[in-house]
Amino acid sequence: MFLLLVPRGNVSQEVVVAFLRDLLRHCRGRVILIWDRWAVHRGPQVRAYLARHPRLRVEPLPAYAPELNAVDHAWGHMKYHDLANHGLEDVEALADAVADDHARLRRQQRLLKAFVRATGLPIRL
Q1: pLDDT for res 5
Q2: Is the pLDDT of residue 24 over 80?
Q3: Whole-angstrom Cα distance, residue 107 to residue 110?
């Protein structure tokens, strides 16, 4: 199963830990997180949570490698297929359109797996 989360507002370490807590509640067995090196992912609260939950394993992406980040492929797809040519009137309308597109993507597991395969990383799906 692949998850795509887009919270509204700023993402803090508390938001990341809440996501990890929900992830563990919904997924059985080992969970591998493929993360970029965003500071929030490496903060002390997140590191402490990961240390307490050994079934969560982090595989960090190289420092700057958007082509290896499946989320960048998802954003590219959304920008090209879903968000292009919208006559959105304000930022709230844009936020709503992005949330709707993410909800649609979450239901398309084959497409999410294709984003991971597009990275070329040696991941079995």
Answers
A1: 57
A2: yes
A3: 9
